[in-house]
From TrEMBL:
Residues of the Tubulin/FtsZ 2-layer sandwich domain: 95-199
GO CC annotation terms, alphabetical: microtubule
Organism: Sinocyclocheilus rhinocerous
Lineage: Eukaryota, Metazoa, Chordata, Craniata, Vertebrata
Catalyzed chemical reaction(s): GTP + H2O = GDP + phosphate + H(+)
Localization per Swiss-Prot or TrEMBL: Cytoplasm
GO process annotations (BP): microtubule-based process
Protein name as annotated: Tubulin, alpha 1b
Amino acid sequence: MSRECISIHVGQAGVQIGNACWELYCLEHGIQPDGQMPSDKTIGGGDDSFNTFFSETGAGKHVPRAVFVDLEPTVIDEVRTGTYRQLFHPEQLITGKEDAANNYARVISAEKAYHEQLSVSEITNACFEPANQMVKCDPRHGKYMACCLLYRGDVVPKDVNAAIATIKTKRTIQFVDWCPTGFKVGINYQPPTVCELSALC
């Protein structure tokens, strides 16, 4: 007795890989894009191992034992409208209405931000923490060619210069020999604008 395998494909990558895999499975087992198997064809001399991955309906249609799940419908809609759209049961294609790219979660609440003012020195030091940078390497092990810092709000040049001087004396970051100064600084005195009742701050 053959066992049954259920495939679960999650997210954009999972759905796209799953769609390609099921197309390959159908080609390997001679199943047509609509789930039917040609009546004149006996796969593998009567081998029914494909039943591990496909369930057969009363009408003789072979349906993948699979579930596709994604937060937003765009990628699964490609399955719904693609060549193999008749292969899958609609209940196997599960989507939400919005993807995770639209999820801007707050790190610090607006109320807390008013009570915990960071100094210019703390903000500047935080810029060079690897956890605050979107890079796939540890920047502490390399050298910078240049660095641009843009401050916004109630910031004075004296504090900025002091913060940069502290970083240079600590040697926490290093610059290439041919560019020893390294820093380009801008200050925008206009405070950041926030939308009323917005989750973004």
